Amino acid sequence: MAPAEDKAGLGLRAIRLGGTLAVLAASVAAVGSGQAMLADRAAAVAAPEPVRPEPVTTARLVIEDGITVLRSYTGQVEPAQRSTMAFESGGTIARVLADEGDTVAAGTALAKLDTALLDAERDRLLAQRRALQAQAALARRTADRQTELRARGFASDQAVDGVTAGLDEVTARIDEVDAALAGVAIRLEKAVLRAPFDAVVAARLADDGAATGAGQPVLALVERAPPRFRVGLAPEIIDTLSPDTPAEVLLGGQTHAVTLFAVLPDLDPRTRTRTVLFQFDRAAVPAFREIGVLTLPRHLPMRAAWVPMSALDDGPRGLWRLLVVAEHDGQTVAGTETVEILHAEAERAFVRGTFRDGDTFITGGVHRIVPGQPVAPLPLPAEPVAGRWIR
Q1: Burial level of 96, CB count in 10 A (0-12/13-18/19+)?
Q2: Cα–Cα distance, 234 to 238 (Å, whole number)
Q3: Phi-psi region for residue 289, left (φ > 0), alpha (ψ -120 to 50) or beta?
Q4: How far does CA 72 lie from the centroid of its chain?
Q5: How far is residue 60's CA from residue 311's CA, in Å, rounded to a whole number?
Q6: Measured between alpha carbons, how far is residue 204 from residues 111, 198, 201, 389 in Å?
Q7: Is 299:236 a contact under the CB 8 Å cutoff?
Q8: Separation CA 80–CA 166 (nearest Å)
Q9: Residue 389: which residues within 8 A CB-CB, separation 6 or more?
Q10: Rounded CA gap, 277 and 247, in Å?
Q11: Phi and psi (nearest 5°) for 209?
């Protein structure tokens, strides 16, 4: 029975092997059929169209040797002259002749003191002088008589010398009274306040009948002349200034032209700046002590080029990327240059980098373009304009 069983086992294995081979053959046939089907489908699909170049606006880079920028500095408006008027000596104010806001010319009387005591003193001195003049006349006649008598032998030299000395004494006392009268005249003149320059009355600090002391303010004046703008500037900036330097001051939304007036010698130890005075070209300006902004041009020597801010994209390590137009394998594509911003304004920047003078760069839409992408530059203008980019 054993040989028969062995033959039966061999037959069963042969049947299983044959089934496996049949399955394998069917699988191979199915794979071949699928590949042929996929190949037929692929052949039936049309080839993709080539990438169309991206239209871009361009400009040419113009490298310059430097730029002139405007720097701003804060300062204050002040009058050319400001004076607080006061009497040299105390007394009662008889009348204040000017009021706040009045325009006065140089030499105009502004206020007067009560001069009754000075008038009385002057009258007393005048009376004393008349008395001395009478004494002098008598002494002069006496001296003449004594001189004549001495010539006749009836008077001594001592008598003549005594009369002459008396005349000299009276004459000296007259001179003393004249000096006192001159002093009274000066005090009477100083009892009237007069405008030292053409001015506007800024403040009235006393009224009629008020008692005032020596040096006590009565009126405040500001000169009717183009005012000045006081500002602190660094010494290196002052070295570039001249009377011809164009400068402007922004006050209350209006721009006023100013010219250099003076540079004060002292250096502020806190700010390390020197005070500079600029004079306005006209007198009509906003209120004194108003804060304004002075703008000065400053030349920065550096070789770089202007580009619009829209042409710049973020680059590595704090730098920026500028896309330029390049040729690659006979095709126009976008290239990249690394740049550094030296000066920026609202819509443009002054940059230096790996580009060359005259290179064509893409002025906008750089976020939609990658380096190596085909581009179609729009026509360039005939000539570049230095200091500006060309759209």
Answers
A1: buried
A2: 6
A3: left
A4: 4
A5: 12
A6: 10, 17, 7, 59
A7: no
A8: 58
A9: 59, 306, 307, 308, 311, 348, 363
A10: 12
A11: 85, -5
Rounded to whole angstroms, how far apart are CA atoms 286 and 265?
A: 28
- What pTM value is reported for the model? 0.62
Instruction: Read off the amino acid at residue 3.
Output: P
* Residue at token pair 């294995």: 13
Question: At how many degrees (to 10) do helices 116-152 and 157-190 cross?
Answer: 160
Per residue of the chain (391 residues), give pLDDT as tens: 445 555 555 555 666 666 666 666 666 565 566 566 666 665 555 555 566 788 888 999 999 998 888 889 999 999 989 999 999 998 999 999 999 999 999 999 999 999 999 999 999 999 999 999 998 888 888 877 777 777 777 667 777 777 788 888 888 999 999 999 999 999 999 999 999 999 999 999 999 999 999 999 999 999 988 899 999 999 989 988 888 888 999 998 889 999 999 999 999 899 899 999 999 987 666 778 899 999 998 888 889 999 999 999 888 877 899 999 998 888 889 999 999 998 888 899 999 999 999 999 999 888 888 888 898 888 765 444 444 444 3
Residue 223's CB is within 10 A of a number of other CB atoms, namely 19
Helices (H), the chain: 2-44, 116-152, 157-190, 235-238
